[in-house]
């Protein structure tokens, strides 16, 4: 098989436009400075749904609502917003790792990164933030637009409603509303979608993980939202436990994967027959419409990508595959997956089996081979890639014979690229290895 350079493929919600400045997440001086920057913008989530804005002249065009720090200040609680210590108003000392840019109280905050002007990468070294300069001086050296997310799920709904009526966007005539996440993402431009993917995954991780995986105690936020730690490791709590003869939480020793955001890899594969003129797609049991897509599944511990592709294709369709080739990847913030796309070769003379793991999941109701002509006919149909698989067709609708995912999903990209010959050589035949 011949493939385009995967470096040229950037899928929807990928290609993050922000410099995440990960090495500065532990710098209270830097984070405090960007919090105070007039250019800082906040993305709000309520029960994992993003706040969107539309305008009267284009009511169907919605984008992420970007609030200023002045807008959200009533929600943040007393200062310091990050770098908190035991009591309200106390600032955590720089020398205590357990309090590095900690947030112990108030709605969860995550520093997403910096949109740098004109795509530059003039990032600042951490040595520029020694803690000896005034925050105003540090803030003046920061160019670009810092982004934060704020989870308002636990904020009183009436208070939140009053606040949203008085933000600058509303005063300027915008209409803001929390919207269902998947539908919202599909209506976004590429910039907003990429920021949304990072923000929603981080909001989800922070909201789901409220207790320590080692001892069950509550956790708190560090590193501007990028680390969770057990509250038993807080200096004043640890001192009390030590004085009473208590044992430290196991999470206080070594590196623990549950302390950091997780991303779950999912392989997604389009099998191509040996002559290169057919692909194998499956229909998911949860789809009311006849929608066919690439076969996918989570990787398991101890697997390579290739191992996972072979196992998933055997489990889901009963086919053996070889000559596995990587295409591209796509972050998928539901809740925090990375979709890793592949093509693989398979014989279309193999008996298809969708019953092998039905006792476990019942995931697929059908799997079949489609010709290039069949796929192109659907792609060219006005409704062929309108992907609302659980909505019912109305009588008289001009329906395509089946549907496939749009190119906002990596499955749609894999299918479309094959159909248009953009990822495979014309004959697409591969020797069995």
UniProtKB/TrEMBL annotation:
Gene Ontology biological process: NAD+ catabolic process; NADP+ catabolic process
Nudix hydrolase domain location: 261-392
PROSITE patterns listed in its UniProt record: NUDIX
Pfam families: NUDIX (PF00293), NUDIX-like (PF09296)
Enzyme class: hydrolase
Domain of life: Eukaryota
Protein keywords: Hydrolase, Magnesium, Metal-binding, NAD
Catalytic activity, EC: 3.6.1.22
CDD domains cross-referenced by the UniProt entry: NUDIX_NADH_pyrophosphatase_Nudt13
Cited InterPro entries: NAD-cap_RNA_hydrolase_NudC, NADH_PPase-like_N, NudC-like_C, NUDIX_hydrolase-like_dom_sf, NUDIX_hydrolase_dom
GO cellular component: cytosol; peroxisome
Listed Gene3D superfamilies: 3.90.79.20, Nucleoside Triphosphate Pyrophosphohydrolase (3.90.79.10)
GO MF term (any one): metal ion binding
SUPFAM superfamilies cross-referenced by the UniProt entry: Nudix
Known catalytic reactions: a 5'-end NAD(+)-phospho-ribonucleoside in mRNA + H2O = a 5'-end phospho-adenosine-phospho-ribonucleoside in mRNA + beta-nicotinamide D-ribonucleotide + 2 H(+)
Entry cofactors: Mg(2+); Zn(2+)
Homology family: Belongs to the Nudix hydrolase family. NudC subfamily.
This protein's name: NAD(+) diphosphatase
